[in-house]
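User: Working on a comparison across species. This one is DNA-binding response regulator from Flagellimonas aquimarina. Can you predict its structure so I can line it up against the others?
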Amino acid sequence: MIKVLIADNHPIVRLGIKQVLEASSDIEVIADVSTTSQLFDMLDKVTPDVVMLEMDIPEINGIATLRKLKQEFPNVKSLMYSGQSEDVYALSTIRAGAFGYLSKTADLDYIISAVRKVSEGNMFITNELAQRLAFDEGTQKPRRFFRKLSSREVEVLKLLASGKRNKEVAEGLNLNEKTVSTYKARLMKKLNVDNLVDLLQQAKALELY
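Assistant: Here's the predicted structure for DNA-binding response regulator from Flagellimonas aquimarina:
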């Protein structure tokens, strides 16, 4: 059972999210709070797998709350959500330690899939957002995803995403197989995934194939 804590200062929003999540048999909302002080008080009493944190929660802004959460409760994974544009906040929240970002305008199905993915320690962003982060809308030139990947890592990811095996990637880039394995491990770490399938999904979302 995935245990979730909802932090949002709107009672109707908290109730709505709770009803959506608890319609799923593998998710339980163990608490909900309306301020950041209540959030940290509650975390001294309960241990959720995922905190759903609203960006504009009162007292401390969402980014500062996220950093404090990561520092004081490093095992708790955070899924940020907001009515603000994904483009404005998503990158900064993920850099601050969030495992995912969800717009309040997203489909309801996204909430459940996001909570499940984040609870497993994987990154969640919508495909639409991934594409906007990956490409500069003015020139359509690829951006560095989260500004973390080196050009060689992008090359390796492109080749893996096109279906090539380690040996073929090594031959294509004039590397040895062990080096390709190292790049693959580094890519998984940087993109916060733990298996090849999720890694390739990230590449697909970024249109790197």
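For your comparison, note: Confidence is low (pLDDT under 50) at residues 136-142.

User: Helpful, thanks.
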